[in-house]
Specification:
Layout lengths: L1 E8 L1 E10 L5 E6 L5 E3 L3 E3 L5 E6 L6 E7 L4 E6 L14 E4 L3 H8 L3 H8 L2 E4 L12 E6 L4 E7 L2 E6 L4 E2 L5 H7 L39 H13 L7 H13 L17 E9 L4 E6 L2 E8 L11 E3 L2
Parallel strand pairs: 9-10
Antiparallel strand pairs: 1-2, 1-14, 2-15, 3-6, 3-18, 4-5, 6-7, 7-8, 8-11, 11-12, 12-13, 15-16, 16-17
């Protein structure tokens, strides 16, 4: 359960809510250009683009949930259970494990257009990071200032979609979300007129009725519509403080409150953290469920020519 969005307001911003029922040992992680990236089937990258994002803490490989590289290319993985299908490693094509996808693409590519060429030959393989972990069922949003894609590994193959909304949540597959948006084309941030009939004098009785029918539940389809409506109609001054605040306001509107979503195991999905990164400056902003103060880590404040990951505890 997650929501990922983009926001163009002078600078270009990218981020997400990470919704889970438990911590995954997350920490803000900077991977500098010379930290060696060893891939199970795709060799070793000795030198690559630097990147920053939220990752599960370990010393050997950056297990990013989302990240942005120094060129402004962004990627996030979101839960996609029941639909994600990974192939068995077989040697053909470019075999990348699901936990490697973000680091591999952001390490090698400066733009979505460049990544598209690799996606044509890529296969997502079923290879877990360790024996104690399973391969998380994921789909991904890949985006830069010019273009946004959704990448879905399904039984039919690796599907790649243009995403004009700049939003992604979870199941169903993206084709459903794209069609479902047509059900809400009547919504508006403006005061509605009477389209019911000219035989009755009907008037709005309060503000916000132009968006009457905007879904408010926590399902992936409803969060997709709500996030898209809010970001597409967002208005904020084109300066950093206002843009970042506006970004978090949109994420807050689709966040999980403890107790409102109970899993089949009896646990509670909550928004573990929300993040926003300015893709030009490399500043990664975040807040957590229990600490709503927005904090920041500047990727360019570190030695990006280094060979060791820099980990910031939350």
């Amino acid at each position: 359960m997650c929501t990922c969005i983009t926001y163009l307001n002078g600078d270009f911003y990218f981020g997400r809510n990470l919704d889970l029922d438990c911590s995954f040992a997350e920490a803000v992680t900077i991977t500098p250009r010379n930290f060696p990236l060893d891939f199970r089937k795709a060799g070793r990258l000795e030198h690559h683009y630097a990147m920053i994002g939220m990752a599960s803490k370990n010393d050997s490989f950056p297990l990013y949930a989302e990240a942005v590289n120094e060129k402004g290319l962004c990627m996030a993985g979101l839960n996609f259970p029941g639909n994600a299908f990974y192939r068995k490693p077989a040697g053909q094509n470019l075999g990348i494990a699901s936990f490697e996808v973000i680091a591999w693409i952001l390490g090698k590519c400066a733009s979505v257009s460049e990544a598209e060429e690799y996606l044509k030959q890529m296969t997502i393989v079923d290879s877990a990071f360790s024996e104690r972990m399973v391969s998380a069922p994921l789909h991904w949003m890949l985006v830069d200032r010019e273009k946004c894609l959704v990448i879905e590994p399904v039984r039919e193959g690796l599907k790649v979609y243009d995403n004009p909304f700049g939003v992604l949540t979870n199941n169903p597959p993206f084709e459903y979300h794209r069609m479902n948006m047509n059900n809400y084309m009547n919504l508006s941030p403006k005061t509605p007129g009477n389209h019911f009939t000219d035989k009755l004098e009907l008037k709005p009785y309060g503000q916000g009725l132009g968006a009457f029918g905007l879904p408010g539940d926590s399902s992936p389809a409803s969060r997709f519509v709500r996030a898209a409506f809010l970001k597409c109609n967002s208005v904020a001054p084109k300066e950093e403080g206002a843009s970042v605040a506006q970004f978090f306001h949109v994420l807050d509107a689709v966040a999980m409150v403890r107790g409102a979503v109970v899993t089949e195991q009896g646990t509670y999905d909550i928004t573990m953290y929300s993040c926003c990164v300015n893709t030009r400056t490399g500043v990664y902003y975040y807040k957590t469920y229990d600490d709503v103060q927005v904090r920041a880590v500047d990727m360019n404040g570190e030695d990006l020519e280094g060979d060791k990951m820099k980990i910031y505890e939350l």
